[in-house]
């Protein structure tokens, strides 16, 4: 019998309340949930629920194994182009992953909305970001192979940041194996070896990325790798694409994996070379910035002794094994640092967040061309002109984050209290900020 999605308003673990169904398909339902913490603050997450529609116990066991594998892969990964995992738990016979809520839309949605090939420079920017996160995954120990690269599994945020989602069939590479335990993939994007011919390695992800680029640049999905006929040349569909980009895609999509790029950074460099000179220089500067480093190998877990005290969950006060990554009672993750963001909560229906990167975030409308700091332009949501151009600023300091009104005409408010101009006020997770008729919620991940 098919497992239906949970109703809106359902609360799990006593703190995750479902606010809407984002979507469903394949092996999971995905919800938007609001977490209410013991201190009364709230946070928005995405929650993925395993769907068990089969009456075959073997198939259900296999599905749960993949779901659990996704949790164990994600919990040890930290990269700006990957969602952060918060919790993994089971309740009432159902299993759940709670992870970072990513504002924006998938590349599949972008392509559907355009109903035409997407601009080459835009696709190259996305693909270069994907190469960087694939490099991070492939250099883990053991390497993580994504295995399901396609437009629907790549999100792009309002700031243009790429996020890979759905690690449901990702796997760790096992040296010496002749082929994958399970032959899985999406037919238009999966490499030939994913159909049971050999063990998929990093080059399978590069094939799928090439197929994804092909689809975005032509608005036509490529032919499946198991079909003898080859896809038509990319430039036959879209002559505006440069020959260099077409060659790079063709190389990535070679059916012989030895003829593909040897690794993700080699493909990244080839794609950067396809950019116009000014964009190529920007990418060169970005390459010089410190890259996310793979986590150091962790020691083999041991049973805690009197010298290894149990790990106490700060949310529910439950003692756990010293090496635990999740709380055994509430599912809270013990891994990772928290970053800050603001989410628009008024006007109703707006559903996206702005991460706070760097030391400050300026809030206002219609930024001037000489703005030197990250800027959140709220002009679209302020038709009556209540906001000042430089209305307020959120700043990072030694104690966390603070907000300061910049002498705006209509003032700034936090939790209903008006701020004194140019007097910083410390922000806490869940604080509500009002600027004119716009409300934002400050949060920590």
Number of helices: 8
Low-confidence stretches: 170-185, 292-306
* DSSP strand content: 15-25%
What Rg do the Cα atoms give?
A: 23 Å
The gross shape turns out to be globular
The rounded distance between the terminal residues' Cα atoms is: 37 Å
The amount of helix comes to: 10-25%
By DSSP, the count of extended strands is 24
Q: Determine the structural class based on helices, strands and strand pairing.
A: alpha+beta
Strand arrangement across the biggest beta sheet = 1-2-3-4-6-5
**Sheet with the most strands, sense and barrel status:** 6 strands, antiparallel
- The whole-number mean of residue pLDDT values reads 81
The multimeric state of the shown protein is single chain
Short description:
The protein has eight helices and 24 strands. The longest helix has 19 residues.
Q: What do you see in this structure?
A:
This protein is of the alpha+beta class. It has 8 helices and 24 strands. Strand 2 (16-25) and strand 3 form a beta hairpin. The radius of gyration is 23 Å and the shape is globular. It starts with 10 loop residues before the first strand and ends with a strand. Mean pLDDT is 81; it is low at 170-185 and 292-306.
Q: How would you summarize the topology of this molecule?
A:
Elements: E1 11-12, E2 16-25, E3 28-36, E4 42-50, H1 57-74, E5 85-91, E6 94-100, E7 105-106, H2 107-114, H3 120-138, E8 144-145, E9 154-156, E10 162-164, E11 171-172, H4 202-218, H5 234-237, H6 243-252, H7 264-273, H8 277-288, E12 311-312, E13 319-320, E14 340-346, E15 353-355, E16 360-364, E17 375-377, E18 390-397, E19 400-405, E20 412-414, E21 417-418, E22 425-427, E23 432-435, E24 438-444
Parallel strand pairs: 16-17
Antiparallel strand pairs: 1-2, 2-3, 3-4, 4-6, 5-6, 7-9, 8-11, 9-10, 12-13, 14-15, 14-24, 16-18, 18-19, 19-22, 20-21, 20-23, 23-24
Helix pairs in contact: 3-4, 3-7, 4-6, 6-7
């Amino acid at each position: 019998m098919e497992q239906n999605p949970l109703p809106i308003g359902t609360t799990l673990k006593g703190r995750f309340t479902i606010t809407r169904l984002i979507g469903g398909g394949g092996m999971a339902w995905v919800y938007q949930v609001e977490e209410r913490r013991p201190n009364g603050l709230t946070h928005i997450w995405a929650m993925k629920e395993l769907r068990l529609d089969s009456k075959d116990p073997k198939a259900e066991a296999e599905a749960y194994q993949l779901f659990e594998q996704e949790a164990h892969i994600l919990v040890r990964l930290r990269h700006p182009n990957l969602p952060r995992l918060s919790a993994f738990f089971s309740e009432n016979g159902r299993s759940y992953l709670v992870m970072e809520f990513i504002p924006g839309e998938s590349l599949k949605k972008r392509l559907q909305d355009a109903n035409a090939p997407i601009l080459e420079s835009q696709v190259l920017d996305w693909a270069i970001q994907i190469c960087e996160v694939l490099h991070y995954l492939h250099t883990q120990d053991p390497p993580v192979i994504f295995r399901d690269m396609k437009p629907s599994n790549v999100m792009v945020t309002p700031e243009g940041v790429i996020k890979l989602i759905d690690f449901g069939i990702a796997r760790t590479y096992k040296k010496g194996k002749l082929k994958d335990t399970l032959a899985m993939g999406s037919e238009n994007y999966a490499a030939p070896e994913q159909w049971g011919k050999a063990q998929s390695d990093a080059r399978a992800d590069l094939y799928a990325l090439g197929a994804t680029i092909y689809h975005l640049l032509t608005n036509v999905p490529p032919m499946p790798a198991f079909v003898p006929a080859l896809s038509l040349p990319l430039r036959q569909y879209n002559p505006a694409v440069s020959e260099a980009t077409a060659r790079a895609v063709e190389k990535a999509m070679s059916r012989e994996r030895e003829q593909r790029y040897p690794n993700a950074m080699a493909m990244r460099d080839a794609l950067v070379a396809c950019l116009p000179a000014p964009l190529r220089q920007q990418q060169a500067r970005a390459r010089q910035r410190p890259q996310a480093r793979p986590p150091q190998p962790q020691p083999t877990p041991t049973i805690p002794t009197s010298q290894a005290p149990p790990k106490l969950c700060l949310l529910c006060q439950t003692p756990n094994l010293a090496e635990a990554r999740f709380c055994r009672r509430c599912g809270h993750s013990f891994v990772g640092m928290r970053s800050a963001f603001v989410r628009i909560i008024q006007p109703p229906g707006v559903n996206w967040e702005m991460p706070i990167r760097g030391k400050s975030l300026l809030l206002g409308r219609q930024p001037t061309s000489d703005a030197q700091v990250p800027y959140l332009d709220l002009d679209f949501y302020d038709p009556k002109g209540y906001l000042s151009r430089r209305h307020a600023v959120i700043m990072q300091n030694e104690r966390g984050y603070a907000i300061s009104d910049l002498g705006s005409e209509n003032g700034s408010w936090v939790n209903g209290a008006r701020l004194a101009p140019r007097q910083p006020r410390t922000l806490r997770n869940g604080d509500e900020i009002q600027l004119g008729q716009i409300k934002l919620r400050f949060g920590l991940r």
